[in-house]
Amino acid sequence: MLRDEVTREDGTSKGRWHVVVDGHEAEMTYSRASATLIIIDHTAVPDALRGRGVGQALVERAVLDARREGFRII
Fold first, then answer.
1. What's the mean pLDDT in 42-57?
2. 5 backbone dihedrals φ, ψ, rounded to 5°
């Protein structure tokens, strides 16, 4: 499942989920509003990956992480 290939990079105030498919990187970035709240502020999927469910996989992974770790998403 593509969602399982998505990885997360966490910083103290910002982070992102990203995945590389066929040499193209897609990402979804966020800002941390508090210890339990993040704001997803940008999603980028290259034209070469459009229509392949890559954006959906990024969102699914974010929701899965939020459920596992107990944070909320705006």
1. 97
2. -90, -10
The three-class DSSP label of residue 12 is coil
Q: Which amino acid is at 74?
A: I
Q: Note the maximum CA span of the chain.
A: 35
How many whole angstroms separate alpha carbon 5 and alpha carbon 38?
A: 21
**Interatomic CA distance for residues 5 and 36, integer angstroms:** 24
Is 39 strand, coil or helix?
strand
Q: Collapse the DSSP code of 43 into the 3-class scheme (helix H, G, I; strand E, B; otherwise coil) and give the result.
A: strand
Beta carbons within 10 angstroms of residue 43's beta carbon: 15
Helix (H) or strand (E) holding 68: helix 54-69
Question: Strand pairing partners for 25?
Answer: 20
> What is the percent of the chain where pLDDT is above 70?
100
